[in-house]
Inverse folding.
């Protein structure tokens, strides 16, 4: 059992964790500091024990928020953060930098913001095309050896990159977007993680809100909401994708669960090493999501779900061309391609 899985067991973590990004980053209006602290404490009290943040989120504000909220409970949960991608304070632009000296400096800064001396898993947020993954992972491995992090993690990487990295230093977890309508990890990453006994931490398991049924053609995304620039949510693609969603919502009603709970149950069913970390600003939604922990799908229902929202049916790529340029994950061939 890897250090990552051992830590989850130590803190008696549910399979479902909390993606903290939404509180400070990515979806427009951010929560007030006091509201964010209250939400994180409520999440802990209702049973969550896996909290995920990053240097990037809110230009370090999300790490500070998590540190303020939960540092006194630090020994009771698994803490995950990320390095290698940050906001440049001068330009305000996102910068990817996987050089060893940068990762070490960012780790030290993360520890300060999180008010701790140890991060349980520290992910390389994005692969730096100018730095060999072995070099970045080797630097993170030294931080493990020094006791500053518990496990090396990778985010948005291919199975090929994972295997290269693992040969340099054992990887504990890989983050990738994985949901019923984003199945790219099934090309190779799900099996690669299983073979290496690496956790596959599924972010956006609710399809960035799409699978909850809360988005329709009248939805107006707030300024700064990343979904406004994502092809699947565009005026050209969203109506067709909503048509695909109808059977999914109907099945949720048939099973007397919410669409969000059904989406999380599907992700959990993809393997014992697959762990979803849905993000939300809503305490009520946190409670709703956690209730999916005990939801197990019968094979017949799982088979039905597997045939819904398949890559050949979903309209639009998950990222814009500019966003995709920073991603190392495998992609499905477009219709007509070999």
């Amino acid at each position: 059992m890897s250090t990552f899985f051992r830590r989850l067991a130590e803190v008696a973590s549910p399979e479902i964790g909390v993606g903290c990004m939404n509180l400070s980053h990515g979806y427009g209006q951010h929560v007030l500091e006091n509201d964010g602290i209250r939400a994180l404490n409520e999440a802990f009290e209702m049973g969550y024990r896996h909290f995920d943040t990053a240097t990037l989120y809110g230009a370090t504000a999300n790490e500070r928020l998590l540190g303020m909220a939960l540092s006194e409970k630090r020994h009771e949960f698994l803490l995950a953060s990320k390095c290698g991608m940050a906001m440049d304070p001068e330009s305000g632009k996102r910068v990817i930098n996987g050089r060893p000296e940068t990762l070490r400096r960012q780790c030290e800064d993360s520890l300060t913001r999180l008010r701790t001396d140890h991060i349980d898993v520290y992910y390389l947020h994005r692969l730096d095309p100018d730095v060999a993954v072995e070099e970045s992972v080797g630097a993170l491995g030294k931080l493990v050896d020094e006791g500053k992090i518990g496990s090396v993690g990778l985010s948005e990487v291919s199975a090929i990159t994972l295997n290269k990295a693992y040969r340099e230093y054992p990887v504990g977890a890989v983050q990738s977007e994985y949901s019923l309508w984003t199945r790219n990890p099934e090309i190779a990453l799900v099996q690669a993680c299983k073979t290496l006994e690496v956790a596959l931490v599924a972010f956006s398991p609710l399809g960035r809100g799409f699978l909850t049924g809360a988005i329709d053609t009248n939805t107006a995304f707030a300024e700064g909401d990343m979904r406004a620039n994502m092809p699947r949510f565009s005026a050209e693609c969203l109506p067709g994708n909503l048509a695909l969603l109808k059977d999914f919502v109907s099945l949720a009603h048939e099973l007397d669960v919410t669409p969000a709970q059904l989406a999380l149950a599907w992700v959990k069913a993809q393997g014992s090493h697959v762990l979803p970390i849905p993000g939300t600003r809503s305490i009520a939604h946190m409670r709703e999501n956690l209730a999916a922990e005990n939801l197990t799908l019968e094979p017949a229902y799982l088979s039905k779900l597997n045939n819904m929202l398949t890559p050949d049916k979903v309209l639009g790529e998950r990222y814009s061309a500019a966003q995709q340029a920073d991603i190392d994950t495998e992609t499905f061939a477009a219709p007509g391609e070999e």
In short: The CA atoms of residues 194 and 331 lie 19 Å apart. The beta strands are 18-19, 50-52, 78-83, 85-87, 94-96, 119-124, 149-155, 171-177, 199-203, 274-277. The mean pLDDT is 95. The chain is about 35% helix and 15% strand.
